[in-house]
Each structure stands twice: as C-alpha cells, then as structure tokens.
Amino acid sequence: MTKRKVYLDHSATTYVRKEVIEAMMPYFSDIYGNASSFHQYGQESKKALTQSRETFAKLINAEYSDEIIFTSCGTESDNIAIKGVLPANHGRHIITTQIEHHAILYTCQYLEKKGYKVDYLSTDSAGKVNLQEIKNIITDETVIISIMHANNEIGTIEPIAEIGQMLREINKTRKNPVLFHTDAVQTAGKIKLDVQKLGVDLLSVSAHKFYGPKGVGALYVKKGTKIEPLFQGGHHENNLKPGTENIAGIVGMTKALELANNEISEENQKIYGLRKKLKDGILSKIPEITINTNTAESVSNVLSVSFNYIEGESLLLMLDMEGIAVSTGSACASGSTEPSHVLKAIGASPLASQGTIRFSLGKQNTAEDIDYVLEVLPRVVDRVRQMSPVWNSKFEK
Ligand SMILES: *Cc1c(COP(=O)(O)O)cnc(C)c1O
Q: What gap in Å lies between CA 115 and CA 202, rounded to an integer?
C-alpha cells in the first residue's frame, strides 16, 4: 500500500497550477524575443510584458501600470523597497517590527551596521503591532516604515490600512513624508490586495507563494516615490530593476494572481474549514499544547502549534517519514536552533517554542488529509515525548 502524502507547507512554497504552466509555456519556446528588441520577436514579448503589467496593476488596484516593478522574488522586492528609498530621501531612521521575515529583518540589521537607526516594534500576544507605538516612535529622521501584511510563521494579519491612514494624517504636516512599505508575500492570493485602501507606497509579493512559479515577484511603487535602483544596467522596469525580463515568469505570476483573486472567497472558506478541523482535532487529541495562531486575526491557511516537551525538528522528521510535510516555525529559520524571533516576540515560552510546528494548508488539501494527520500526529507526538527525559520525569509517580 502506498502511503498517503500530505503537503502542509504552503507558506514555504506552492506547486505551480496547471493553468499557470499553460499560460507560461509559449514564452519559453515560441515567444522568446528580448522585450527590449525592436523587431517583431521582441515586440511580441514586450506586448506580453505590457499586458501583464496592466493586468497585475488592476489586480492590486494600483492606479498606474508603471507602478508595478517585476522582480526576481519577494526577497528582492523587499530589498529594493528598503534600500532603494534610503539614498533618495532625507533621514536615517527605519521602523519595522520584531516579527518580519528575514528578507526585511536581516536587511535592517545590515543597514544598522551601515549607520542607519532601526526601531523594531514589539507586538501583542497575537502578533499585532500597536498604532500608538508607531506614532510615538516616528521622528523627523524617519524615512520608511516596513510592516508585513501577514506573518509567515503564525499568520497574524497586521492592521496595514489603519496604519496607512494614520501615516497619511501624519504626513500632512511633515516636510518629508514617511514612506510605508508592506511585505504582502503571505497575503497575495489569500486577501484581495488593494494598495490604495492599504495606503502603502510600496508593497512586495512573490509568485511561488500563490501557485505561480519560483524566481519571480513584484514590487508596487506608488507614483512619485523617490527611490533608486540597487544595481545598474539597462532601463528595464522603470530603471529600478535592470536585466532582461523573465516574461514567462511574469505572465505566470499574473495568471496565478488572477486565478487566486477570482477564487478567493470560496478558497478561503474551504481552507478555514480544514484548519478548524485540524485545530479542533489537535486540541481534543493531544495534551500539553499551545495554539500560537490567533485564528480570528490571521490568514486562512496557517496553524502554528507548540507541543511541549518536544523538539520541533524531531517531530518534523517523524511526520516526514509518515508522508506529512510541515515546517518548524518557518522554512527560512529551520536549520538553526535559535528559538523563533516571532514566537519570542509574542511572548511564547522557550519550552513551548522549541516544539513548534507550522501547518500551512493549501489548494489540494482535503478533509481526508486532515483525518490522516489527526490519526498520525497524536501517535508520533506521544512517541517523541516518550523519548524525552523531561516528559518522563514529569509523569513518573
Ligand atoms: C517567502 C517570503 C519572503 C521571501 O520570498 P522569496 O520569493 O522566497 O524571496 C518574504 N517575505 C515573506 C513574508 C515570505 O513569506
């Protein structure tokens, strides 16, 4: 009997949808011209690029299509956003949060070494930042505030539109506006993005998190935002991201977001249901656990659970042997034994943090998948705990 395989790591990456692959295919073989070339080959590619940009702009409600900069990934979008605005604007102060993805966090730590001042906002136990704290921390030197739309480890959605509104008010009386960036890599395709409602100047997404291909992302840059490129080359992408465009990737990403936006409510409803089933099952079947995800204020697909008296890595490996793919905290943090910076920020105990697993659901998951997980997980957790001296001494008479 072949074992069931259940992929529950969609926040790390997703497969590419068939419709997306089909949309991309012609741009590998038939339509391969360089979009900067003036002959017909080039113009065909250029047409696909222009159309994608227009469609993509509409999908996130950007006012102008040239506000969309196609990039190579979410990490690159984040880097261009932060590092790009610093030399072009007055001031040396950056505000971000303690729970950002490493693409932001490490960028900010690097900039601190280069002499910039960075403040890292704390969060409440749900992982949400506080508007008053932001207001208090802004100075005349503040260039940019970067706050993720939803967290990749626990799924918390941040109040971006409220912050955007607050900043618009604050900027009315400032000589140099505070710019606002959000890393929306975990919300694109799960929440309908509207850059105008969110009130952001810059917004990052990455295709491989919403059933598009790897190696392509986008950065929204509101018209009039002062920003410089990170590297020099041709005049591609409004001079912000030189290099021959990845037309197939860009077409694929646009198609993926279009499909996701069309299906957003039915898809979320399904995923919410599966996550509830998983959460309720874990709560009823396994003792000594903490649910880290505030399911009322998070994206639909993430459930972070801490299993006390367990190493998350051991649990991950044993689940993997049963065909179940999950992650500890986040894919980018795994491999390190440091407790997750996100769990630390929400005040999770080190004991609990150690045994944390992120389940992230996606399109192809079914109720039967969750049944299988709920059958395997209690058994595996129990087995790992039996090997733990702390667990055993706790229950010795
Ligand atoms: C995955 C992720 C990134 C990085 O995106 P890449 O395309 O893999 O570079 C950035 N931010 C968040 C919140 C993510 O989840």
A: 23
Please indicate whether residue 152, judged by its CB atom, sits closer than 6 Å to ligand 1.
yes
Q: Domain tally for the chain?
A: 2
| Residue 396 within any structural domain of the chain | no
Q: Using the 3D structure, point to which of 230, 259, 288 is the last residue of a domain.
A: 259
**CA dihedral sign of residues 218, 224, 227, 233:** positive
Neighbours of 323 (CB within 10 A): 15
Task: State the distance from the centre of ligand 1 to the C-alpha of 75, rounded, in angstroms.
Answer: 6
Torsion angles phi and psi, residue 229, rounded to 5: -70, 160
Q: In this structure, are 376 and 228 located in the same domain? A: no
Q: Is residue 196 part of a domain?
A: yes
**Host domain of residue 218:** 18-259
Answer with the one of 224, 259, 294 that is the final residue of a domain: 259
Domain assignment present for 395: no
Distance CA 184, CA 150 (A): 7
My answer on whether 118 and 243 are in the same domain is: yes
Q: Is 73 annotated in the active site? A: no
Q: Tens-digit pLDDT profile for the chain (397 aa)?
A: 567 999 999 999 999 999 999 999 999 999 999 999 999 999 999 999 999 999 999 999 999 999 999 999 999 999 999 999 999 999 999 999 999 999 999 999 999 999 999 999 999 999 999 999 999 999 999 999 999 999 999 999 999 999 999 999 999 999 999 999 999 999 999 999 999 999 999 999 999 999 999 999 999 999 999 999 999 999 899 999 999 999 999 999 999 999 999 999 999 999 999 999 999 999 999 999 999 999 999 999 999 999 999 999 999 999 999 999 999 964 444 555 677 999 999 999 888 889 999 999 999 999 999 999 999 999 999 999 998 877 888 776 5
Which 8-state DSSP code applies to residue 297? G
CATH number at residue 43: 3.40.640.10
Return d(Cα 337, Cα 380) in angstroms, integer. 21
Report the atom number in ligand 1 closest to the C-alpha of 100: 13
| Distance from C-alpha of 233 to C-alpha of 330, rounded to nearest angstrom | 34
Q: Is 178 in a helix, a strand, or coil? A: coil
Indicate which residue of 31, 332, 351, 374 is catalytic. 332
